[in-house]
Design brief:
about 300 residues, alpha/beta, 2 domains, 6-stranded parallel sheet, 4-stranded parallel sheet, 12 helices, about 45% helix
Length: about 300
């Protein structure tokens, strides 16, 4: 309420679902005081799903109905992916206005003069992956793949893995404090270019994504990408330097890692350049901002 009163807003755009309902309630009160209409936009970023536990699922059904039907009568929706929009359509077939707008990346921080080369400082073909919550990022699959790949390509590859929420715990479960020489565990950092410069290929083993900034940034910087075939990242699947493996299939992941290692570097460089151009055209902050502004113009 205080923000509405101070700013005299005509439009409120939420980016966190925890604010969706409070904003609707506050807007209704303010509209009764001031008159007129405040446009409310909910931005759907996160994957929504039902818990397996039946009691938790019943609660979710109740909560989602209140959230995405009852409180959404005069709400417009921006969704990061069609997958998330389909989920909320279970509760309301059509919102006031709705659109799918994928996220955009900040190309300034990427220093995208990159020209692909599989020759990195270590001299080894180096795979890069970002840790997170393992229930989503499934770094355990990459570690299993590394063990199998080491039996075939010992001394010819390395995996750089950034520390996420429980990454160290997962690594510890595998190697009991004695990490193999092919695995390099590093702290997360703001300057991801430093990590890209050490890498030959980016790997995403996620089982749940609605977009993946990591894939967007790696591909726009100029790295080839090995990614699981989940719906949330299929926007990158058609690019020539993107290589899909069957989600949760470690054997297929190893096969794709070997395949990329064996690719002709000149042809891979050409493929990366095409992917870079494609994703620069569709997934930058400037493109995202233009789409957001056009949506604002439509709903007003």
């Amino acid at each position: 309420m205080q923000i509405f009163e101070e700013e005299h807003a005509d439009l409120c755009h939420t980016h966190f679902d925890g604010y969706d309902i409070p904003v609707v309630k506050a807007a209704k009160i303010f509209q009764r005081k001031r008159g007129g209409l405040i446009q409310i936009v909910w931005h759907l970023h996160n994957e929504l799903w039902y818990q397996k536990n039946i009691l938790k699922k019943i609660y979710q059904l109740y909560y989602f109905w209140w959230h995405y039907f009852y409180y959404a009568q005069n709400v417009s929706i921006i969704s990061v992916s069609s997958m998330v929009l389909r989920f909320v359509h279970k509760y309301k077939h059509l919102y006031k206005h709705e659109v799918v707008i994928p996220n955009g990346v900040d190309i300034i921080r990427l220093q995208i003069e990159r020209k692909y080369s599989n020759k990195v400082p270590s001299g080894l073909f180096t795979f890069l992956a970002f840790g997170g919550r393992n229930i989503q990022k499934r770094i355990d699959l990459l570690l299993e793949a590394g063990i199998l790949l080491n039996k075939k390509r010992r001394g010819h590859f390395k995996i750089i893995l950034t520390e996420g929420t429980d990454t160290r715990d997962i690594v510890s479960l595998f190697f009991k404090g004695k990490n193999p020489e092919w695995l390099k565990l590093v702290k997360q950092r703001d300057n991801i270019v430093e990590l890209f410069e050490e890498s030959s290929c980016f790997v995403s083993t996620s089982t749940a994504e609605t977009f993946s900034y990591a894939i967007a940034e790696a591909s726009i910087w100029g790295l080839p990408v090995i990614q699981s075939d989940i719906e949330g990242t299929l926007w990158n699947a058609g690019n020539p330097s993107s290589y899909l493996f069957k989600s949760l299939d470690v054997g297929d992941l190893v096969s794709k890692m070997e395949y990329v290692m064996d690719l002709d570097s000149v042809k891979l460089k050409e493929a990366c350049a095409i992917t870079q151009r494609n994703n620069l055209k569709d997934y930058t902050i400037d493109v995202w901002s233009d789409k957001i502004i056009r949506f604002y113009q439509i709903i007003n």
